[in-house]
Amino acid sequence: MTPSAPIEALLLHPSTKDLYPCRVRVTRDGLVLCRVEAVWAGVRGARAESDPIGVSWRSLRGFSADESCATRAGNRLQVLEIDCEEGVVTMLAPVSEVSRLFAAVGQVWQQWRIARSPLGLVFGGLRRRLVGQVA
Fold it and tell me: pLDDT tens digits, residue range 75-102?
């Protein structure tokens, strides 16, 4: 599966509470987050992304999108929290973007779960080796 189209969000810094534009992509391995850097010199509208930060499915504990808040510009955005082993990542995004993210996560998660089931492993041509066979 190819990575999903990124959603646009605002990443909340945990200590300073500053907001930074970011993009979140759903891949078969997990979530990929990139901060969107300043406009490239001389190219109007072009934006550079920072090095990606990956959140693997195995380290992901869950999502929360129970609250909303207003930005300084007066826009009401959904508060999206991604809980993983390393901590909680908090972002603000329009409800439509959060909905697209959850839909992409649901699609990948279903494929990931089926691929790792015993039947999926057989049909996928992947077989797990027993510990005794490896040693």
Answer: 899 999 999 988 999 999 999 999 999 9
Distance (Å, whole) CA 4 – CA 105: 9
Secondary structure in 3-state letters for the chain:
CCCCCCEEEEEECCCCCCEEEEEEEEECCEEEEEEEEEECCCCCCCEEECCCEEEECCCEEEEEEEEEEECCCCCEEEEEEEEECCEEEEEEECHHHHHHHHHHHHHHHHHHHHHHCHHHHHHCCCCCCCHHHHC
Please give the Cα distance from 128 to 1 (Å, whole number). Answer: 22
Pairing of strands 87-93, 76-84: antiparallel
Query: Which residue's structure tokens are 């810094």?
Result: 13
What is the pTM (predicted TM-score) of this model? 0.69
- Tell me the chain's radius of gyration from C-alpha atoms: 18
| Interval 119-128: pLDDT, tens | 544 444 444 4
